[in-house]
Amino acid sequence: AQSVTQPDIHITVSEGASLELRCNYSYGATPYLFWYVQSPGQGLQLLLKYFSGDTLVQGIKGFEAEFKRSQSSFNLRKPSVHWSDAAEYFCAVGQSYNTDKLIFGTGTRLQVFP
Amino acid sequence: DVKVTQSSRYLVKRTGEKVFLECVQDMDHENMFWYRQDPGLGLRLIYFSYDVKMKEKGDIPEGYSVSREKKERFSLILESASTNQTSMYLCASSLSGTGGNYEQYFGPGTRLTVT
Questions:
Q1: Do A42 and B109 touch (CB under 8 A)?
Q2: Tens of pLDDT along B57-89?
Q3: Number of inter-chain CB pairs under 8 A, A vs B
């Protein structure tokens, strides 16, 4: 069965530092991959998505992610973190070709220190 | 601007009560979803609807039922609320695709407390 792993439960960075959030998936074919962000008390907002083509995907708020098939990874990056980026981040993968359901990781909580 | 709305942000109910959570989307999406979010467990799918009156069980359907009588509205029903159903409930919608190739749009969530 497909699965998504976010190995880091909680990450703390200083404002202005670079950020990388890890996501690993298991899927037999080329997956549909997503990163969502959830600010406190809010629903989830899409940051970016990968379906095919260029393996480096640009998203909103200065985020990018790179699809690496050989490592089954889709890590989220940002070169310089802002205090407003403090939130919870979820990676998700399309479950299979015959359903529109997604599988979500357990999330990574990002804390930003000034 | 696309929108998914949920009937309540916060809800407090007593054990044994019947609870209705409503979700409305204005994007004419075929798919609608109900998730439960708990710390450390991420989002778990309760039910999925891919068309009016059509539904599919998710990973944790026990203790829940759903109703979709109109395309824009998807209701989650707790037949007899229990304390272990205290959680954040998120509704989402998406276009119908081929294997999740369309993003899901989320509502703001309902934080339900059962006492």
A1: yes
A2: 999 999 999 999 999 999 999 999 999 999 999
A3: 68
